[in-house]
Amino acid sequence: MKRKVPSPRPEKGSVVGADDLMKLFNDAQQNMLYLSKQRVTAMENLDKVEREKTLLLARVAQLEAENEASSAGCEVLQKKLKSIEDELQMQVQGGDWAVGDKVSKKKMDPASLWSELNLTIDSLVLKGKIDVGQATLLRGLVLNRDARAAEVFSTLRSIGDNELIGGLLALLDPNRRHSLHIVHICTEMAPLTELGTLGNFVTCLSRALRRKGNLVEVILPKYASMDLSCVCNPIQLEANFRSYFDGTWHNNKIWTGILYGVAITLIDPSHSKKFFSRQHVYDYEDDFERFTYFSRAALDYIIKAAKRPDILHIHNWQTAAVAPLFWDNFASQGLGQTRILFTCHDLSSQYLHEPHKLALCGLNPGQLHRIDRLQDNSEPRLVNLVKGGIVYSNKVTTVSPTYAHDLLTKELGQGLESTFQIHKNKFVGILNGLDESKWDPQKDRYLPCTYGIEDFSGKRKCKEELLKRLGFSSLNLSIPLVGCIAADLSDSELNILEDILNLKSSQQAQFVFAGGSKNPRIQTLLETIEPSQKDMKSQLVTNYDEALIHLVVAASDILICLTFSEPTYQTPLIAMKYGTIPVARSVYGLSGCVIDAEDQSSRMSERTGYTFVSQKVLDVTAALSRALDKMEKDPVGWKYLIANGMRTNFSWDTGCVESYLEAYRSIQAL
């Protein structure tokens, strides 16, 4: 773009008319607009990492303000905030920052993002897109270092002026709902600890909530197996705190840090039984003691640190004890405005135990071992922690509206259907989002060639690479490739996998099963499975390989989704994102995202795959057979199914995070 040259100044003694003055004024205004636009363009090219670091500083300031409002004298939290801020300042002022595979050394004034926002406000006024009053109010947000304004500016400025203006002006709405302080108490967070889908869920939801301007924290046990290299400034606080368990008070060490902009707290018990200083995370005989200790310690820490969160979000049986503990022991200690939301990720895992064990963490067994509280519906002599989470929480979420309905049935209620019926008004079904930072064929670092809906050629190259790597006898890319990710399957699902591997099909297809698991028990079972056919049309890989899993998803034409028992499993969503047709069960919350290609009650644009109802191998293979027929006989319709799936938006930042915010806010007034 050429710079506009202003008209020459009139010679001395000449008469300047009104037209000349107006022309000079217009030229000057054009130059001002040009210079302003150039400044904005230059600022938009600043390193993205710089903006993230400054956003973290803004978040720390917001956290510090929260602490000052609740208890300015809290030494533990002040030390935590100071250590985080010192580390962020050090990084912002010249540390080494990883950018992709490179390291960039830069120096940046922490106020640069605010300066950019201030200049952008100038530009919007000059363009006539906002008025003087709006500009004044927006500059007030800049002066106050409002973290929500920084978040909106960083997220929307590259999209366009209209979107940015809409986001900024929404912050000025006097009726706008205030941000929430949400604390997750859980046992997994990716990538620190990730054995199933819980860890990824906590990370993705926390990041999405933070991007909406909320204050989010996560409290976890500090496992001996944790790798803290992904955490920004992991430090052990000098101040310990004590928590109650088994009739006495025990010391706990506290570690803190920042992960994806979210504040994390790790509790390291100084207990003689070394509850979390072990090789594995789960499957110990004293798991009840381990996780009730952690649940109690997390609440003791919240009180000690003078936190006043709006929401405590708890997950699965491991932290379900937080709910009765909170209302019986902690709500009266300054937490009267806090509410509890409980997410059931996997109802097949419930922990039953003798009632007297509840006293270890300070609960009263006599009051809780009742049918309307924690007494198990099927084993009356035992207590059920999941039932306690349902009864004592203000809201319970499941992975989709369909699954919330399924839980009311005897078949899928896992023995708790009567409890769900009594408390059905608490249930909200929310379809979990897809982690697109990990699963996106357009930028997947594990693929030999990336691709998207506009350019599909990379998928064929991925298929060719996989066939070569695994030594298939035929490299004919026109032969359908059927894949399956069998990383976290139950025993019954592993039996179905074995039957499919040994099934002789009249249809021409090649099969690849990536069966490696992080779970030692499942890994052992997988290694005992071996296909009976030795015709090189089937391959079973039993070593866990993250890169291979991504390649199998991308290379396959069809993906069999065998996980029935864990309703949060997202393989069908991932398959659609990668242009692979899912063959999935139509219950456990999946019927809402995989619409069968032959479903006459749906629109053509909604159909994305093939579904089956039961866990019988014949039903699975029947659905697979229908998919193979479609691929062979209707290539145009097949491409239409692929396009439908790839166009569907399952990201966390769409309706998913808004649904969780609505769930949180719905219980604040209770």
Low-confidence stretches: 1-16, 68-110
Helix content: 40-55%
Q: What's the mean pLDDT score?
A: 81
| Computed Rg | 28 Å
Please, how many helices? 22
Find the count of extended strands (DSSP E, 2+ residues): 20
Distance between the termini: 59 Å
- What overall form do the CA principal axes indicate? globular
Class by SSE composition: alpha/beta
Provide the fold topology.
Elements (H helix, E strand, L loop, with lengths): L17 H27 L3 H23 L4 H18 L3 E4 L2 E4 L6 H15 L5 H12 L3 H10 L4 H10 L10 E5 L12 H14 L3 E7 L10 E5 L4 E5 L2 E12 L2 E8 L17 H18 L6 E5 L6 H9 L8 E5 L8 E2 L11 H4 L14 E2 H8 L2 E4 L2 H6 L10 H6 L4 E3 L27 H14 L10 E5 L5 H11 L8 E5 L5 H8 L10 E4 L4 H10 L2 E4 L9 H7 L3 E5 L24 E3 L4 H17 L1 H13 L4 H17 L2
Parallel strand pairs: 3-4, 3-9, 4-8, 9-10, 10-13, 13-14, 15-16, 15-18, 16-17, 18-19, 19-20
Antiparallel strand pairs: 1-2, 5-7, 6-7, 7-8, 11-12
Helix pairs in contact: 1-4, 2-3, 2-6, 4-5, 6-7, 8-22, 9-10, 10-12, 15-18, 19-21
Please explain how this structure is put together.
The chain is of the alpha/beta class. It contains 22 helices and 20 strands. Helix 2 packs antiparallel against helix 6 and helix 10 packs across helix 12. It starts with 17 loop residues before the first helix and ends with a helix.
